[in-house]
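Memo to structure team: turn this sequence into structure tokens by end of day. - J.P.
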Amino acid sequence: MLAALIIIFVILAILRFPIALAVGISCMLAIWLFSDISLIVLVQRMVTGVDTFVLLAIPLFVLTGRLMNAGGITDRIFSFARGLVGHVRGGLGQANIIASMIFSGMSGSAVADAGGLGAIEIKAMNDQGYPKLFSSSVTIASSVIGPVIPPSIPMVLYGALAEVSVGRLFMGGIIPGALVGLALMVLVYAISVKNNYPQDEKIAFAELARRFGQAFLPTLTPVIILGGIMGGIFTPTEAAAVAAIYAFVLSFFFYRSLKIRDVPDILIETMITTAVVTFLISNASIFSYLLLLGDLAGIVVSALTAVTMNKFVMLFILNIILLFFGAVMEAGVALILLVPILVPVLNIVGIDLIHFGVLMTLNLMIGCATPPVGVSLFVVSHITETRVESLMRAILPFLLPPIIVLFLITYIPILVTWIPSLAFGN
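Reply from structure team:
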């Protein structure tokens, strides 16, 4: 059955079936034609796959991002970031990255970052004379930061699958996310100096303070989320609800930029996104179950541990594997399919599950910017009306900084584990 399942899935993927349907149909056919398992098991596993309290955080973080976008909060964030670093060579590129780091603390999604801030950032950069491919590449690369700096939808999913603390995962992503941002800023500066890209005039401190005041309340979102989790006031799932309420209060009551007529459309968009994600999770749950039933985890464990039992060599191998999967598969699918298979390997070799969760998240987010399936590539291509093929070539230099950070945090695990150990103890 295992071989049939994989072959059918590969055939459907080659035929360009939507990935959720390819997963679901391959499971159904494998059970029906190649096993004596009742088809009712498929339905049961699909239901139980999404029957997890922690997954409620996903629609709530999606809603938070949409409320922030609709409320004009992204404009305030970008304006502050531009005032902060716009005077540096390649200033709007730097502001693009800073704004993504700030917005990361609200949306938890690379796509929300690229789609929400992307249109504002790219228009501003193009208006100032930056090449469209450069401004698009910076936007795509900076979206990688979104799910690494908490909150993070992929970390919520990993936490549910690996049965580890989502709060610890959130804390573990703070330093790696900041390092990715700084590394990208160094690259943008070097390219901007080489090509003599423009910069803003330095603004007065009073103007910077005014812009900070406009963006201050939205930037409190990650403080509220992390502070509440660390203080034991609420769980990560409850934190998502708090963030959504806070975003609504800011947009509707405080800034008054969100109208009541906008709310139904935002809720519908959130429900559609949530339905797509949960349908994918539901189908992937039965797929993972069948892989485990066929002892694929045992096969993988035997194969990898036969190569090495050294955890540092194993981490290198797993990074390469994940970089490949991130480039050819949507992050949520990769998490659902791979986490149940890899966790036994991690436990045998002695790799910390929190450390690996952050590594896996960064790996798969690099995949969002990597050809051929990078989701952020297609989002920005749509925004800028640029050929995806052109973006695929232009993005390549911008993948180097996050990959360098990936291997840095792989072999200096304290960069991931230090803040969780301070917040929660060992």
